[in-house]
Amino acid sequence: MPIQWNYPGILAVLAILCISFYLMRETLFSSLPDVFNPSISQISLRSLLCVSILAAQRGGLEVKRVHDGKTKNVKDKDGGTINPVTDGDFRSHYVMMRTLVDAFPGLKVISEEHDDALEAHHTSVYVGPVDKTCPSDVLAAIPYDTKIPLDHLQLWIDPLDATQEYTEDLLDYVTTMVGIAIKGRAVGGVIHKPFATAANKKIFWAWKDQGISENLKNSSPPNESLKIIISRSHSGNVDETARTAFAGQTLEIIPAGGAGYKTVEVLTGRANVYLHTTKIKKWDLCAPNGLLNAVGGRLSTLAGTEVDYTAPVVANDVINTGGVIAAVADHATYVTAFSTLNAAKPSR
After folding, report:
1. What are the tens digits of pLDDT across the range 243-283?
2. Which of 34, 86, 87, 89 is catalytic?
3. What is the value of pTM for the model shown?
4. Active-site residue flag, 89
């Protein structure tokens, strides 16, 4: 007897099998961490913040190891004497970069230390496994997660901010930083102080409209005098500029090292405003900008325009030439005070 095929029934079974396979595949891949998904197009906001914290901490450990081992190996990037770089910079760069891109393949990360030849000497540095475990304070502050398209993100990292001060053993100024931008706008970041001894003064993190670290809450600017914090090593004409802009006011000018350190002083109420009038790189600014945006403050050029953190196309794209005004409060007042002054001048 010839076999009678039930073609509609066979097609229905095949359709059910195909749908079942598709659903099983989607369930499997969606349950895996992003790093194991080869077709990653979106990543967890909270996981990215937590890995950024881990990257800054790992970088800080390398900075400390090099210092404690007295193996800084100081060089100058430009062949002169005012732009030092050390093994601490490169070892920190390597572990921070690897931590981020191993966790999120395809993530755009721009680092201050990106010399392939010099980096090759530090590829033996132990990085550690991919780990997206979030600290309890992050989970408490950000209980609900959000997905972000991978191609919308740009991360700017400074593996060792305040290298000049690092070479002089002025270690309180030293930070490691991860700045997070979405479509070129700073929205969050991490500033880590590897040599800080108090736990609540060691790491500062924030993500705009999501959450901030406890040590960034309830800080208000000083009001006994106008405290302006400036660079101790790249000051340009900032002291003169400030005194001209705020003539008649009681001023205290505070020289300090590192954009990260100066921003933390503003964020925690020990200075009113961070002022800078010479050129500065965007990896120095992205994390500070993100943290200030998250707490309701602002970082801008002297003219009040936003700094664009879109991934650079040419070398000059990493440079901000418009100066810096960074404040938690009264930012518009500071911009107005500088509106009639000259634009930022080149670095000396």
Report:
1. 888 888 889 999 999 999 999 999 999 999 999 988 999 99
2. 89
3. 0.84
4. yes
